[in-house]
Amino acid sequence: MPDTLVDARGLRCPLPVIRLAAAAKDLPAGTELTVLSTDPAAKHDVPAWCRMRGHEHVGTREHRARSPRGDVGSGADVGSDGRVGNDDRVGSDDRVGGDEDWDGWAVTVRLG
């Protein structure tokens, strides 16, 4: 699980990356942060920020809101290599962020 959670849900570009940068500012290398975002640009902007700043993009997980029946939509894991796979860090059953009624992405980074 990440060391720090950055809740940027409801914020539009560039605010999710600005919030991430502010949260990461004084943290040591090796710290993991997960950005929760409803902005589709974040799934591209956060990995780009990692490349520019020398950090590692650990993975991106799509989060789906619960359906009216209480089911959770499936999400796809996208690793730092761009391949779809299984990332156990942020799973649909982990309820990242505590509030299940949102659609978006959880993007995890490791500070370099």
UniProtKB/TrEMBL annotation:
Question: Compositional bias (Low complexity) spans?
Answer: 70-83
Recorded hits in SUPFAM superfamilies, A to Z, give: SirA-like (SSF64307)
UniProt xrefs under Gene3D superfamilies: TusA-like domain (3.30.110.40)
Boundaries of each UPF0033 domain copy? 6-30
Q: Which InterPro entries match?
A: TusA-like, TusA-like_sf
Q: Which family is annotated?
A: Belongs to the sulfur carrier protein TusA family.
Q: Looking at the record, which segments are called Disordered?
A: 56-101
Q: What is this protein called?
A: Sulfurtransferase TusA family protein
PANTHER family given in the database record:
SULFUR CARRIER PROTEIN YEDF-RELATED
Per the record, where are the segments of Basic and acidic residues compositional bias?
A: 84-98
